[in-house]
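Weekly structure sync, notes
Attendees: PL (lead), two postdocs, one rotation student
Agenda item 3: pending single-chain targets
PL asked that the sequence for the first pending target be pasted directly into the notes so everyone works from the same version. It is reproduced below exactly as submitted, 159 residues in total.
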Amino acid sequence: MNGPTWTPSGKISYALDFDGANDYVTLGDDADLEGFTDMTLSAWVKIDVAPNTSSGFFVAGKERVYKLDMLDDRKVRFLTEESWAGSILVTPTALSLNTWYHIVAVKSGTTKRIYINNVLAASLSTTANTVGSNGNSFDIGAYFSGTPPPGDLFNGIID
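Predicted structure, written out during the meeting:
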């Protein structure tokens, strides 16, 4: 963990507060977190400020394998390795600042879905089935591919 602070202002209880400058959590590489056909990523998020980069905010995942993030327009994006070539799922509506959202990204076989506050926000059928692997760590709040600096730093709270 590099820098995020525990705050009692989480959605449920305590949560991690990321400053958007240099905070992230890296859980390392684990083969159990790769090479599957079905997966779910879930987080409560509250964005403090809009992303100021064209790449947006990283929420959680393994860079270049699968990830849940937000674009610079605050739309939620869910990618898996096979989708880099055109099956990227993006919600049609941007998230508001200073509002809690429960985001769930699901990959079931060849179907991807994003739910926001228990409502289906986007869905996509893909041709690929299995999520690959590459040895990158599972990260929260920014992706870290082993060499500084981390990318797409989140500015807000992740619970």
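Discussion points:
- The mean pLDDT is 86.
- The first strand starts at residue 5 and ends at 7.
Action: rotation student to compare against the earlier draft before next sync.
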